[in-house]
Amino acid sequence: MSEASYWLIRFENQVLVRFEAGENVFPFGSAADFGHPENPLLIGQWNGRNCYAADFHALPESIGGELMPVRSLFGAAGEEAFFLAGRGTQYMDWYKNHQFCGRCGTKSNMKSDEFAMECPSCKLIAYPRISPAVMVLIERGNELLLARSPHFKPGVFSALAGFVEPGETLEQCAVREVREEVGVEITNLRYFKSQPWPFPNSLMLAFFADYAGGEINPDPNEIEAAGWFSKDDLPRLPDPVSIARHLIDASLQS
């Protein structure tokens, strides 16, 4: 790996970004320039060049730049950098957590023809984990049903969301999650868009839905507060990077 490439360098759960010519970019150079990092993973391209991801246990003094959380990259370096760093983070975590076969315990090897780990003994192949989750924004005229989870930032309300269960369609998941979390029924489910969310390995699939009936009865184990909010008087909303914010903004513009 002698050619110069871009690098997603992770140190203590933050990634290194350099400010060059007024732009935020990933560090550029050969593997030797960065001390020959162990197990670099090719995660895509940046500015037309290969980009590799690697975990560092210590940063060489020669490497300059600024460390920041992946979540902060959206505002600091833009959507493309955020998604590339998110992909790299997921790949690094998956690689670190799948060194051994989950069936027989043998040391696994990275496949050469695809991004997967293969057991040399029992031939079990492990692919990067992706956990699908459904998000639903419920509309009732000029009102939106928003809720907050205890782990949200103070004052933030968002659309409802939950993970898809085995044997369940996305539509079934949406109906079930809404019913479980706030006790209401929905109809006219409409797909909005999806977003990879590397915290840690989700794929968010967002929907609009119309209110069909029932009184709000929050699940105390999941929901701290929930209610109907006028589009003209909304509470604090999620960060602009999130699909929840995209979903709410799209409703406000419709």
Automatic annotation (TrEMBL):
GO terms for cellular component: cytosol. Its EC number is 3.6.1.22. Keywords: Hydrolase, Magnesium, Metal-binding, NAD. SUPFAM superfamilies: Nudix (SSF55811). The keyword Ribonucleoprotein does not apply. It catalyses: a 5'-end NAD(+)-phospho-ribonucleoside in mRNA + H2O = a 5'-end phospho-adenosine-phospho-ribonucleoside in mRNA + beta-nicotinamide D-ribonucleotide + 2 H(+). One of its GO terms (molecular function) is NADH pyrophosphatase activity. GO terms for biological process: NAD+ catabolic process; NADP+ catabolic process. Residues 128-251 form the Nudix hydrolase domain. Its cofactor is Mg(2+); Zn(2+). Pfam families: NUDIX, NUDIX-like, Zn_ribbon_NUD. Belongs to the Nudix hydrolase family. NudC subfamily. This is NAD(+) diphosphatase. It comes from Sheuella amnicola.
